[in-house]
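SAMPLE LOG
Freezer: B-3
Tube label: C17
Construct: single chain, 272 aa
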Amino acid sequence: MLREVTVVEVREVLRRWVRGEGERPAAGAAGVDRKTARRHIAAGLEAGLVRNGDEAQLSDELIGLVCEKVRPSRPDGHGAAWRTLLAEEEAVKVLLDKDLTMVKAHELLCRKGVVVPYRTFVRSCTERFGAGRRARITVRVADPKPGIELQVDFGRMGLVPDGERRRVCHGLISTACYSRHCYVWLTLTQTTADVIAGFEAAWLFFGGVFPVVILDNMAQIVTTADKLAPRLNDAFLEHSPSRGFAIDAARAAKPKDYHEDSAIPRTGGAVP
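STRUCTURE (predicted):
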């Protein structure tokens, strides 16, 4: 399903691109699709954006011009290709009932003259018919270099006294991917502010900031989990650049790629 890209996400894509990052890293950091990032960058160039220039050029006026240029008109939240597939729903169901792959089903549909983008076809089949949700094999992921990646997730630590009652204590567990060195920050609540406070405590403990933070789609950071373009919380999306780290959310559903000694799944993008 298509969604509106927020101003914060647009600014983050352009900020990273101006700093010299490619389309894919910029899109991943902002939680948007690569093609979406490409459209925003192209619109930025038309508006006068300069590559490797000062970030001060990302004014509200320029961001507004970019948003106005690329934002499509979709009253129902979907584009023309999606509506085309709705009209061909019976034909698509027949193809999927033959146990064909998504690629083959899309190819046969195109031969009938119904030409739609493959990604839109996959999203439609997954949402309308639950297609493509099959178990995948586990893939080992090569360990990163020391000090590069940090895995973060909440864990339930048990009940603790709080006045006349007992409350659940949670731990924000930060684990270095290479050394497995671990830091646990305790909290009684799990708000975005708590997560940020836990990150700040972890940076002090480790003596520095890890460039990449891998997390298991915790709701305080990831608003919408998606294996290709997860949507991140705007507040955290503004905080992470101030500390110089990027969020790498684990793939949604049941990821099957792991570091050899890790208990937290890696993202599909890291698999060769």
